[in-house]
Amino acid sequence: MTSLEELRKINARCIHCRACQYAYSGEPDREGEDETYTGMLQGCPAGLYYGWEGYFNSGKQWMARAFLNNELPASKELLEVTEACTTCGMCETQCPNYIDTVHVTEALRAAIIEAGVEPLDKHKIFGERVRNEELRNPYKEPREERTKWLGDNIDVIDKDAKIAYYVGCTAAYRQQQIADHTVSILEKMGVDFTVVSDEVCCGSPILRTGQRDAFKEVMKENLDLFKDYDLVLFSCAGCYKTFRNDYPSHSGEPLPFKVRHAVEYAYDLLEEGKLDIKKEYPKKVTWHDPCHSIRHVGIAIEKEILADSKNWLLDSRKAQKAKEAHYEIPRIVLNSIPGLELVEMYRNRGNSFCCGAGGGVKAQFPDLAVFASKERLKEAAATGAEVLMTSCPFCVTNFNDGIKALKKEEEETGKDLSDVGSKLVVVELLELLDELL
Questions:
Q1: Domain check: are 306 and 164 in the same one?
Q2: Which residues touch 69 (CB under 8 Å, ≥6 apart)?
Q3: What pLDDT is recorded for position 29?
């Protein structure tokens, strides 16, 4: 596993220019009546919420350097500041020096814990539950009930197939409708697949919060469990990113199988002419790019190309195009739906503002999570859309929590908050695709 010490040279590239604090948009100036979002905006949820340099990536990079140089001791206070970050990767997108900012932050968290500081209380519970053989998930649900959501559709469980659908903890125990619709889509498209009953947590929540020993256990378990499949599909953005990006990084070995998010797989079927949507969806929709499945994967695609490059001048353009092509995948799927009008938020694609739920923030810092959700809902409402669409169970949960908070505020104050998102409807793209097929 990559340690903070191994990232010293990467961290040393930080010159504290603070470019990482901002979100550059394709629309530097917006004309017209709605000028809610213009120019260059700050893009770090934690930095915006707390307002102190240490909560921005620029501060975290310098704290990591001070920690490495024994100028800043491990402490609970340092861990609290470091953990108050959604690890969304906005800062990494903006960095002109290609610093792996998220890796440094996650390694700093792990180094603090390895130095003897206990994980924060909610995060510690994650680790204990995931390591518990009777649970193997952060929700404290019985392991034997992981496939209970399938009901009578038990024929797909542990079936002899070359494609596996990795459900993930959130879809298996909380957002079960996402799992239901994913399975329904695959069945409607005639895909021969299985759901593996012994799957365990992907490890994302414990990796993000610095609990690397526990992460290593579930990573090895999942790699062994799925090694004989040709393709593993995901409906959870976090699980997908963890398998695709983090497993090779932390195991030191390439994945023994291919991976695709279900939206990417729908795109593949669309390109092959196997997905033809006839039903109309006559609504104005704005799309939220999940950090894990869009930005993080786009950054990984770019860095994979540059890692093999012998000419960065030429290959950086190739890498940028490949990254941008990945960002277009959900948009191509959306634009294939008859009647749907897609309107973009000001910050989108690699510059998309985080929903606020990732990196362990939703559990440990709920006020920060709702703050970020409301900021994004405001941006979505500014487009005039009636539907906020995404494809991530955590984004769906946190946006709905943000809308609940806005509606509660309406009830208490009597103010109409529709202009900042109280009337938005959150829709999961996979659910919509299933209904339209």
A1: no
A2: none
A3: 58
